[in-house]
Design brief:
It contains 8 helices and 6 strands; from the N terminus they run H-E-H-H-E-E-H-E-H-H-E-H-E-H. By secondary structure, the chain is α/β, with parallel strands linked by helices. The protein starts with a helix and ends in a 6-residue tail after the last helix. The model is unreliable at 1-27 (pLDDT under 50).
Length: 245
Amino acid sequence: MTNRLLLLLLLPFLFLSCTSEEEPTETDSPSNSINKIMPLGASRVEGARPDFESYRYELWKLMVDGGWDFDYVGTNDDLSSYPSYLGFTFDNDHEGRGGWTSGQILQGIEGWLNETDTPDIILFSSPGGNDALQNLPYEEAVSNINQIIDIIQIANPNVTIIIEQMAPALSSEMTAELTTYFNRMQEEVSSIASAQTTASSNVLTVNMYTGFDDTLLADAVHYNEAGAKFIAERYYTVLTSILEQ
């Protein structure tokens, strides 16, 4: 991994660390939506407009267009500005934290679930991606991902989890080592989804890598607007088959 790639990965995390003493946002009222959706992951979930985009806003617009009853849930939001759409204000709740590894998400997930409305659907973004970029052990990432899913299913035995086969980094940054990790994780995610699916909780995969190229990136790892739309459309295709009307 190049030093430049690691720096790009960690910048959003460092920014959050520096602003952690700001007053907390007002607690949301309990959600009555039949489709409570938690976007879960790191900087690709959080976004950092105008530098790079999260898929959340583009997916939200698709869901509004589709007339779905839904609510993003989570204990985090960001400071970016998002235009209203068709008279609606963007729902900014999520569980994305820039630079966080699978181990850090594992440490936080139980508390986040306890602090927010229990999600019906989890969108699990780029599992193990930051572990790869920080040269952390592959098997440790796999174990963490499985434990994260275990905790989510304990909190809601009927939850649906959509786990990404993640989009790659910039092609010039995809070293042989990183490419090997990336390819292994794509296959691993399919195995995890199959093994973790229960009679009441589906774990589904969504392919984010086929058709994804450098034109969809704002920097070495993060989405530009076109990339955010690409990811959102892939999620939306899966969601329309599982959302409740």
